[in-house]
Specification:
5-stranded parallel beta sheet; binds cytidine-5'-monophosphate
Length: 227
Amino acid sequence: DRQAIVAIDGPAGAGKSTVARLVARELGLMYLDTGAMYRAVTWLLRDRDIPLDDEAAVAEVVAEAEIRLQVPDDDPQAPCPVWINDRDVTEAIRSLDVTAHVSAVAALGCVRRYLLKQQQRYGRQGGVVAEGRDIGTHVFPDAELKIFLTASVEERARRRHQDLADRGEGQIGLERLARDLQERDRKDSTREIAPLTKAPDAIEIETDGLSIEQVVRAIVDRYRDRH
Ligand code: C5P
């Protein structure tokens, strides 16, 4: 008998992290950013110069990877610290290099199996809002509430541009950002294992023209309707 689970999936840049974190805070649940786990593994493989098509070499590194995630409970805007093998990679996992390679890493069976186990262990007792690509379909298929968050590619590119500008990296153009998002979505939705797709019982929220507060409110209301 476990507490409730909220699953939030969707394409890149749809605002899942911001929304999931605020929903967790409002409902008093834990927050799990599974994308950060795939990013941390990608950072480690790149740091060690492991060829991503060498699954045996990847599996070896992954087997000894220990990831820790933290959620600061004071400031909901502050970045969530991430460690892998005791290295603080909070900022490094958001780099262009990691972003460009994470979909290839996330397509590997050995990586997905390993992280799936960790994610399910984290949610064993429930009480969690988990966010990613395959939460409602594979990680927590029995989640009480499943949300599929989307937005037009133009809107997602604009948001990504704003995020980067806030970090002093506003020089990448909107068109390039839109292309990168679409390329990542294409890889994530066409891979063989646990591809990005809306679970049949997920509620889709198209967020163009909605504020963060409105999206959070919509999800929290759905949750309270059912509890
Ligand atoms: O959400 P975020 O953009 O940080 O995710 C980075 C990448 O991690 C995704 O593009 C995808 O390749 C992978 N991912 C995944 N399954 C998840 C979460 C993320 O394959 N549940």
